[in-house]
Amino acid sequence: MAYFFDMAVSSRFRGMKILNLLALCVLIFSLANIVPMAEARIRRYKWEVKYEYKSPDCFRKVVITINGRTPGPTIQARQNDTVIVELKNSLLTENVAIHWHGIRQIGTPWADGTEGVTQCPILPGETFTYKFVVDRPGTYLYHAHYGMQREAGLYGSIRVSLPEGESEPYAYDYDRSIILNDWFHRSAFEQAAGLSSIPFQWVGEPQSLLIQGKGRFNCSSLNSPSLNVGIICNETNPECSPYVITVIPGKTYRLRISSLTALSALSFQIEGHNMTVVEADGHNVEPFVVQNLFIYSGETYSVLIKADQNPTRNYWATTNIVSRNATFTTPPGLAILNYYPNHPKRSPPTTPPSGPLWNDVGSRLNQSLAIKARKGFIIPPPQSADRMIVMLNTQNNVSGNVRWSVNKVTYTLPHIPYLIALKENITSAFDQTPPPDGYDFKNYDIFSVAENKSYTIRNGVYRLNFNSTVDIILQNANSLSNKTSETHPWHLHGHDFWVLGYGEGKFDIYNDPKKYNLVNPIMKNTVPVHRYGWTALRFRADNPGAWAFHCHIESHFYMGMGVVFAEGIERLGELPSSIKGCVHRK
Amino acid sequence: MAYFFDMAVSSRFRGMKILNLLALCVLIFSLANIVPMAEARIRRYKWEVKYEYKSPDCFRKVVITINGRTPGPTIQARQNDTVIVELKNSLLTENVAIHWHGIRQIGTPWADGTEGVTQCPILPGETFTYKFVVDRPGTYLYHAHYGMQREAGLYGSIRVSLPEGESEPYAYDYDRSIILNDWFHRSAFEQAAGLSSIPFQWVGEPQSLLIQGKGRFNCSSLNSPSLNVGIICNETNPECSPYVITVIPGKTYRLRISSLTALSALSFQIEGHNMTVVEADGHNVEPFVVQNLFIYSGETYSVLIKADQNPTRNYWATTNIVSRNATFTTPPGLAILNYYPNHPKRSPPTTPPSGPLWNDVGSRLNQSLAIKARKGFIIPPPQSADRMIVMLNTQNNVSGNVRWSVNKVTYTLPHIPYLIALKENITSAFDQTPPPDGYDFKNYDIFSVAENKSYTIRNGVYRLNFNSTVDIILQNANSLSNKTSETHPWHLHGHDFWVLGYGEGKFDIYNDPKKYNLVNPIMKNTVPVHRYGWTALRFRADNPGAWAFHCHIESHFYMGMGVVFAEGIERLGELPSSIKGCVHRK
Lengths: 586, 586
What we know:
The structure is a homodimer of 586-residue chains. Chain A has helices spanning 2-10, 12-32, 34-37, 188-195, 361-370, 418-423, 554-558, and strands at residues 42-54, 61-66, 75-78, 81-89, 98-101, 127-134, 138-144, 155-161, 174-183, 208-211, 243-247, 252-259, 265-270, 275-280, 283-290, 292-295, 300-306, 315-322, 333-339, 387-398, 401-406, 409-411, 456-458, 462-464, 469-475, 488-492, 497-504, 523-524, 526-529, 533-540, 545-551, 562-567. Chain A contains seven helices and 32 strands. Chain A has four domains: 1-32; 41-161, Sandwich (Immunoglobulin-like), CATH 2.60.40.420; 174-370, Immunoglobulin-like (Sandwich), CATH 2.60.40.420; 387-579, Cupredoxins -  blue copper proteins (Immunoglobulin-like), CATH 2.60.40.420. Chain A is mainly beta and 586 residues long. In chain A, strand 20 and strand 21 form a beta hairpin. Chain A is 11% helix and 35% strand. In chain A, helix 1 crosses helix 2. At the A-B interface, strand 1 and helix 4 of A face strand 1 and helix 3 of B. Chains A, B: Dimer. Chains A, B: GO terms for molecular function: copper ion binding; L-ascorbate oxidase activity; oxidoreductase activity. Chains A, B: Its main location: secreted. Chains A, B: Belongs to the multicopper oxidase family.
């Protein structure tokens, strides 16, 4: 907007003419769209992506910023608005692509921003325009979807409100967005190089946790905070002062809590304040009260809190790692719930609450089970499916590399994006053999380390019949370490799915479907599969395009933990040439 | 080659057929080329570029390797051979381009490998084929020419020998290639982010110097060699054991010494052994003897040494920084001249020679002046020029950024490469106003800090008349620091130039040309401009294409210290589509 504004004011006279012209355009546009689009607007953003030194947790490192910020600017829109983001890549040698997480991209599958799946990457010096409609209210995210750039800091919030005059089925006075993240001091390049090394080098636990881009690393844990390799760590840097949520006593706040961690499952809690969960991934939840909210990478929740505690002091909001033991490696993330008019930086007089035990799986499973669609907002699921795909998640050693697999296939993205290859019938672009719909249910022992035989690196797609109903059973198993099973948050692009159920142990394809919740299942786009457990999803393949479905842990996706679905490609018109920069180059 | 070989052996029967076919092709090819190409061969390389952890100086960091190595494989060819490099980019999110430094690319300007000038970059997942003829014998280099990737380790040697049966005008028994480099522990991304920061953050002096990819950082200077940010430094790592040049007593060695430093000017010396300089940048030098060789980034020399010292011990070969004061920051690089049959790792019994003083400008200027074309190999320069461009090199503050400028223009590369924009007449691709041919000779004080007025960031080109003779005077000046003037090695793509002279102070356009050496000037592709001095070059604009001419210091080029020449574009046929991937994308 700034650009057009500058143009308009550059000369008052010329500006007036442009403004008149704009007014005319708006008028024509309005007339052409009176009925369905009366309230829809265009939300236009101009973003520049580049490298900058930042100290989100007091430790200075190069991050990728949008318009100088990480997290980037929040996109605020109303339901049915069109969002246009003109993204200029000002990185030096690195391409980029941004995914609009939770936005289904109905009719615009090329705007999903998933490199290798829906578009070629955006080169340094190029400006790419993302244009899509936000068709549902709710809390969404955006982030890089190329290599491991997300954890370099390229992420932010999308907040879609109801159309003017409509209101949520719950009351609140104010609305705040908070993204949780984990933070690593090694660059994404270093992490990726380690993950591809033989011997394998794991990324390790994060150095800190960020609440809305701010965390605190204990600089004194470095023997010398400024070595000659240029380490700068300064706990008095205002960039890493704790995030402050200021509240007015007596008021109710909607906190939109989301997680874009690279690795960690988190718990979030506010000292002395219960939270009422009302939204999950853009869908209304039958309200339930928690002391702590478990949240997995890629999930968004809205919780309501009431500022009804002693107003003469501030309170801690904290986040800590669960599901992995980071007790001795990663301190909790801290923010301040500031009761106005106390000083926002005044530390609460208490010790920050420590959060639940990292290995309390039961509580996490209970929260998963508690999330149901809100009465009056239930979207009934189809009562049966046309196809069931059981996806066994295993960790494997493939030719010396540690990889993650689904049904013995460890995923790699092709150079030519699927959407283009499928639409233009470039069969050489990827493996035309689809991956398997299941595994050896009878003989595979999910409680043992994988035998690591016949695992292959492949890039075939699951082709789904258009409008068919598909069930996905995510089956967890033992990792390469004995008696260990990790938690994986799976995220589906282009659709929401109904969460039909969670279970422990091996999914029983004969009996477990009988226990599905077909009454009031929540719809989501990201869901955890718990240790040694399974999660059952159902979705309708009703969105023409190619869509990634993958573990949202950055390193797990890099290590092959994902698949791609394709449906209704024949229904698509011509693809925009702007997504095809990497294709016709011979 | 491995790939074709694998194909051939995959089935013996099928293999035989392919081999017969190949033989037939070779026969046809030979018949078609009997006269001019009788001895020329194709040298084919398959390279894969990726990130790997390496410890060239004992400090572990992510580098860019070619086929697992840094420096990459040496290209060995004979004069008139065709070199084909199939380059696969296996980086994660980063593009790449490789420049063949010193190869003039006559008839193949699109193969020069200069991103933004001669080609679009090569995307991750893509394979790009460089194909060019090495038309002159000599010592050349290759390295990344995109962003600051060169200093991430992407570089190597090209050695072109005389046609079979021909011999050099000097005798030697063996031939060795040694690349000198400086090494930084911060990544190229971090360095670039610092250089673009306000306030400016300089890259500083290198942590170590590498001789043929091996150096030694003093790990104990880190307070703790393995902090939780993952620093690993290990002086017993064989990757950083000193480079060994093994010699047989009594034999004469041709050492091809080249420099690809990111920043440093160097001196190279071998304890107890004189060096006779015989080649510079592919041209025969009238031999002269040095105790130490001064060498600037982008230069190559051949020196002869005779293994005529006490053969019962080994000797140090060392390199140290000159022109900048790195006495307290960068230890000398060490290698071992190993007299066979002594153990190659046996340390010499002496203290390594310390090399000349860093600030001894006179000795460096003297070496520059000593380099003349060898008798019998003199290529006479045109006795006059059609155009003279005087290039004032200044350091400036442009809108808060520290930049380098030529005649008040600080350079930035366009998104669409010049070669394509010029050939296809895409006038919007770059500033159509050419940069100035001179500066305010009368009033500009080269001994003072620049006033920093009216400096602009631009990307116009110097259009040269085809086959015209062009004189370039590089005029050095004071930097932004009082009483400081740096040394800049300028490198010209696509041509060799005659080095007509060097001088101190401000170039006098009336009188200094009278002192030009028009008798036996050396031809080179890289030449230093000394502190507060000038260097005069002459070249013929006889190679259709667009050619960069720039300071070979990686950070200086990044900061704008370069220009582009274009000539004879109208003589070019259609450009290969493989270089145009970033262009037709709207």
